[in-house]
Amino acid sequence: MKIDFAPLETPLHRRLQTAAVVQWVFSFIGLAPTCIFLFFYLLFTRFWLISVLYSVWWFFDYDTPSRGGRRAPFLCGLKIWEYMRDYFPVKLVKTADLDPRHNYILGFHPHGVLVAGAFSNFCVYATGFRQLFPGLTSYMLMLPLWFRCPFFRDYVMCAGLIPSNKESASYPLCKRGGTAVVIAVGGAPEALDAHPGTFNVLLANKKGFIKMAMEHGAHLVPVFSFGENEVFDQVKNQRGTWLRWIQERLQSIMGISLPLFHGRGIFQYSFGLMPYRRPINTVVGKPIRVERNEKPTVEELDALHQLYMDELSNLFDEHKGNYGVDKDTHLNFV
To answer: How does this protein sit in the membrane (predicted)?
Structure first.
């Protein structure tokens, strides 16, 4: 296989963009196990007191993730995230105002492999979410598993990430307006369908976030991220194959999916775990008004769920031509 190396005269700003994405990829893939290893390793060194003191801190701070987390605005506004934004690049597209007097649940589609668009737009301040939607504070949901990792939990909370369970998601929605909870609705299973050129959305039986919106009177906002599935290639794993069966079994046991993805390298473009430089355009749709209903009937839940799917389809069809998607292509709800 011929290896396509990066040119030596690559401009400094592009090298900085690559470095920014390297640290982000490592954060998602390797930082959690590194933190766990470090925590236990320190116990057997002369620095054992660090892990002991952290354990005491963790005991008293255990419920913080489920109570809105602990965002660090300074870290969210670092220049490194702008370099990451420009690597792809990532752009946030607004189609309607979101009144900060209300709360919102933003359904993010598709999940992609590493939700690059959601992180860039709703966790850090690189794409102008606060300027486009003044008065709103975003909270993105992440698998609860990661909040059980020492040190790593504190890192992800700095970006406004909170556990993806009902208790954690409900906490910010109890505020009187100004909250936008971002949910990658397809979750970990949808990552297994993140192949370039595909538009499969795991939504047909996903109604938990719809019910939560009704219980809190939070308006629903469909969000579609064009290009999210394009930044990585993935080993073919169609439903029914032995590889997909193994992946789904592991996902049901561990709670996380293991897509066999690949992209480019740091100093060459032929192979590696770095995402490709392909644009991601995240389009935020119009809000769907939801009246508070703490005990919705099955019929009411199904009706709102269908309305949400229709609005997501309309959002996709309205904007797909702007981002190189064929006019005959439509979303496939799974």
So the answer is: Multi-pass membrane protein
pLDDT per position as a tens digit, 187-242: 989 999 999 999 999 999 999 999 999 999 999 999 999 999 999 999 999 999 99
Q: Could you tell me the pTM of the whole model?
A: 0.95
Domain ranges of the chain: 12-325
Q: Which two tokens stand for residue 189?
A: 């299973």
In this structure, which topology does domain 12-325 adopt according to CATH? Glycerol-3-phosphate (1)-acyltransferase (3.40.1130)
